[in-house]
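Form 7-S
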Amino acid sequence: MPSDQFFTDFLQVAYRPDLDQLTGRWLRSVTEPELHQGYEALHQAARHYQCGYWLIDSRRRTNRSINGPEWVTTQFLPQVQRGLGTPLYVCFLVLPDYLGSLPASAHQATSGNPMQFARFVDEGAANAWLAAQQATHSQV
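Output:
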């Protein structure tokens, strides 16, 4: 169930305590200020729930003319990870044509980094990756 505390008119944020997973679903394409506002809502929810496992569904964000993906993975997520003080695992659901337009190196973060991300077109595969990260992290 989404929490109104972190919900915007363009991003639905929900925390699943049974999975210890934070989900952000973009509801439409956004402007650059809205992109930053939406990711800040996710950041606040992550701090509130102390959750380092995120699923971000950006399939409805079809306008990719702004430099959002690079900012998110190179600046925003590392900053969030440092603030949480725990590893951060983020999977992005994207449209197939968008994933195909990215270089292979942009599909997933390099291993060993405390902030890991991966991009998927299938929600089942995304959830499986996130569950595998949780299983691996809980064994450490």
